């Protein structure tokens, strides 16, 4: 799945508010709704095993659109286990962002979209670095955020993590509004995503955000 040619033109869509998947990152999911159990079963029958994660767009829904943001991220199912009552615990590995072209009519209980991968070729490359990253300043800001939220963290792991793993993991794990998660997803570079993340953390520290959680 490292080659762009392997990415399908139509993907099943999982619209989940606040759930962010980024390229080269892993997202655990608990699947229990019947329509998404059907989606998972169908995805596992394909060679690509791809599911498209996307944020619902309330404004687009009110204006008569599809109710989805235009950009999402596709993930490949890399781990899954079934519980005794038929639910699934799965892990998605982020492959590439995509742009929704249009929704596909069909008979599946879940939604599917034709998508374009153009403009996201960098997602399929190697780990991205952030040359302007001031790690000490960033971790100091993060420490104040954790303290304000009553959260704990493995600081040794955070200090040793490479730039992309650190920034993307925090972007996915910290609790921000869905529109903020979308801004993190659409950031054109790791540096821009880090700048957006810092802005959101500082905004929360000034009292502008809700409670944050770290799993």
From TrEMBL:
SUPFAM superfamilies: PUA domain-like (SSF88697). It comes from the Bacteria. SMART domains: LON. Pfam families: LON_substr_bdg. InterPro entries: Lon_prtase_N, Lon_prtase_N_sf, PUA-like_sf. Residues 11-205 form the Lon N-terminal domain. PANTHER family: ATP-DEPENDENT PROTEASE LA (LON) DOMAIN PROTEIN. This is Lon N-terminal domain-containing protein.
């Amino acid at each position: 799945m490292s080659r762009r040619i392997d990415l399908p033109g139509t993907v099943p869509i999982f619209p989940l508010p606040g759930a962010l998947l980024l390229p080269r990152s892993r997202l655990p999911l608990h699947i229990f709704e019947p329509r998404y159990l059907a989606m998972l079963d169908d995805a596992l029958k394909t060679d690509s095993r791809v599911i498209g994660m996307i944020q619902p767009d309330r404004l687009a829904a009110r204006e008569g659109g599809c109710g989805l943001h235009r950009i999402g991220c596709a993930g490949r199912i890399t781990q899954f286990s079934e519980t005794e009552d038929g639910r699934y615990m799965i892990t998605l590995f982020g492959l590439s962002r995509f742009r929704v072209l249009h929704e596909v009519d069909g008979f599946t209980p879940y939604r599917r979209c034709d998508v374009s991968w153009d403009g996201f070729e960098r997602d399929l490359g190697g780990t991205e670095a952030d040359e302007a990253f001031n790690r000490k300043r960033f971790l100091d800001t993060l420490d104040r955020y954790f303290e304000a939220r009553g959260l704990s963290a493995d600081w040794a792991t955070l200090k040793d993590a490479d730039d992309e793993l650190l920034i993307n993991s925090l972007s996915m794990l910290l609790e921000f509004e869905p529109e903020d998660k979308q801004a993190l997803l659409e950031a054109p570079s790791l540096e821009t995503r880090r700048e957006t993340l810092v802005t959101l953390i500082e905004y929360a520290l000034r009292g502008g955000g809700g409670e944050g959680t770290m799993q």
